[in-house]
Amino acid sequence: MFPEGSLPDEIAHKFVDALADDGGQSGAFTIVHGATLGDERQNVRQLLSGEIEFALTGDLFIGSLLPEFQALGLPFLHADFEAAERMHEGPVGEAVAGALSEYGLRIISRHCIGQRFLTGRDPVRELGDLTGFKLRLPPDPVWTEFWRKLGASVVNVPFPKLKSALEAGQVNGQENPPSFIRDLGLYDVQPYLMLTRHYVQYQFILMSEDRLARLSPARVGQIEEAAKQASRWGCAKARADQAADLEWLRKEGGMRIVEFDASGAREAALDTIDRMSVPQSPVLLNHLKHE
């Protein structure tokens, strides 16, 4: 559902190119971007119904399918890229992959695309400044509960409608990786960028187990290796480009950079987990406890 030329779109093209290098035919693939086929949840349903063969999605959809992993997407739980990588590449990631497989989905590869930052019409310097702040969030109940706990007035807006919601004043701010803020032109309607670094965004290349079962082991191996190549490239690019994107947003984009005091945010996230009505995965809770 991401714009043409954005990092996810580039990763999709790298994936197709890698398949072509492995004897596939890149011309046999059509990459559909810009939410033409709907949002991530719709794309997952299209995978399962056989309407599409691959989907590139963010990680927040997982909680809607696997309630026991809803805490996976809470902000302020990981301090940096390395901490998030330990979760996604370790026992937690294996447990998520196993649960999704039972649901009929295979994670072909996973990658980071940057840390998420808060932007707004007004500066936000600490948690107290979030009181009454009209914040756009993806339609995810856990994120909604968490940010409301911090005092924000949450409005759930689908990603494709984000900029128009900001332009119309429906919301005062949003949060996304710097590359998304730049690619969507959000700097035109958001004067302030807060250095919250509250979440390391992960994405997945997904395929249905049913479709994979109809392919030869050799072809499955080609697909998995092509996806992993594309994901490694995308994660490395995201990490290398983040500082440059922030600088671009400050200079060319004209955004004012605001330091943010996150004191108390991790405690709020852990308290949100305690208040969840659905018990969380023991593997995930053990990871968060010892991280």
Name the descriptors:
single chain, D-Maltodextrin-Binding Protein, domain 2, 291 residues, alpha/beta
Strand and helix map with partners:
Layout lengths: L6 H15 L18 H10 L5 E4 L3 H4 L15 H8 L2 H13 L1 E16 L13 E4 L3 H9 L3 E4 L5 H6 L5 E4 L1 H6 L8 E17 H5 L3 H35 L4 E3 L6 H11 L6 H9 L1
Parallel strand pairs: 3-4, 6-7
Antiparallel strand pairs: 1-6, 2-5, 2-6
Helix pairs in contact: 1-10
C-alpha end-to-end distance: 32 Å
- Under CATH at level 1, the class stands as Alpha Beta
Largest sheet: 5 strands, mixed
**Could you estimate the helical fraction of the residues in percent?**
40-55%
Number of separate strands: 7
Q: What name is given to the CATH topology?
A: D-Maltodextrin-Binding Protein, domain 2
**Tally of helical runs:** 12
Tell me the radius of gyration: 19 Å
Overall spatial form? globular
In the predicted model, the low-confidence regions spanning at least 5 consecutive residues are none
- Tally of individual domains: 1
**Which structural class best describes the helix and strand composition?**
alpha/beta
At the fourth CATH level, what is the homologous superfamily? Bacterial extracellular solute-binding protein, family 7
Binned strand content: 15-25%
What do the pLDDT scores average to? Answer: 91
- Oligomeric state: single chain
Order of helices and strands: HHEHHHEEHEHEHEHHEHH
Q: Give me the CATH architecture, please.
A: 3-Layer(aba) Sandwich
